[in-house]
Structure of protein-tyrosine-phosphatase:
Amino acid sequence: MKQKIKVLFICLGNICRSPAAQGAFENLIKNKGLENQFEIDSCGTSGYHDGDLPDPRTRKTAEKRGIHLTHKSRKLNKKDLTHFDFLLVMDEINFQDVISLTNDIIIQEKIFLFGQFRSDQGAPIVPDPYYKNESAFEMVQDLVEDCSLGFLNFLGEEKCLK
Ligand code: 4NP
């Protein structure tokens, strides 16, 4: 049996962007009947919100799209870097924080800006909505849904899917 594709979504606090991305991607692959092919998780580069559910604004926005978020925030650890096949970060600061944890080129090549998979020509980042208003959370939700589709297409092109 082929190995599962292990995907880790990473942001700063693991209460806004990365759980939203995790929920959107899980929802997409479930709808496509691909859930058996994946292991999916999310985490933060900080432990500021360890054990917390996603921000209420993130949960409310996801819920409106039929996505129920139950993930509890946790901090990225060294084992994640070897365990997961794809380390999908939300912005350049996350990228620097993660890449600075290793000199191993194999691991460094697993780090991608999730925003690079968006369908338009916008900046390849998912901006932090934490200090913003509700519309910023809607924008993040739209973006992570769009990037999820793009990432799944990328996996197809890379012949990662069965
Ligand atoms: P996230 O957003 O990285 O998308 O989860 C944030 C959540 C919390 C904080 C910053 C960003 N904070 O400073 O507590």
Summary: The first strand starts at residue 5 and ends at 11. The radius of gyration is 15 Å.
